[in-house]
Write a structure and sequence with these properties.
Helices cover about 15% and strands about 30% of the residues. The chain has two helices and five strands, in the order E-E-H-E-E-H-E. Strand 3 and strand 4 form a beta hairpin.
């Protein structure tokens, strides 16, 4: 399935948001995710089904100021 993650195209075999993040190596517990512009909590990722063409945004905290 073709998805876009942080504006970059990716091909994944996973059918859920959690599976896609794992497949792409995005496994930090401190990630925030959005699917097609809507926030998805960590608890909901495992049940959030992806469809071809979905847009995922992944944000991670950064140190500094």
């Amino acid at each position: 399935m073709k998805i876009t993650v942080n504006a970059k195209p990716h091909e994944v075999s996973a059918s859920t948001l959690d599976g896609a993040l794992n497949e792409l190596g995005l496994i930090s517990p401190a990630l925030a995710t959005a699917l097609n512009g809507a926030f998805v909590s960590r608890a909901k990722r495992v049940e959030t089904v992806l469809t071809d063409g979905d847009r995922i945004e992944v944000l991670a905290p950064m140190q500094g100021g």
